Amino acid sequence: MSRCPRARTERDAVERLRLYWQAETILATEAPVLPLTYHRWSALVKPAVTHFPISPMRRWFLKDVVVAQGG
Q: Which residue among 17, 29, 36, 59 has the highest number of C-beta atoms inside a 10 angstrom radius?
């Protein structure tokens, strides 16, 4: 039986930890590829727009944004 499904239903915390540790060890030693990726994110903002913060979670907080006259 696979270690992760067994670990999910295992009631004994020590045994559950051991099963997850075994699964992690197998993954780390036998995985042909371990993808580590991130997506880049860009925003185009006109020069007339200032105070346009972008949070690390890519959320826009527009309450402080200022658009210059004629922008």
A: 17
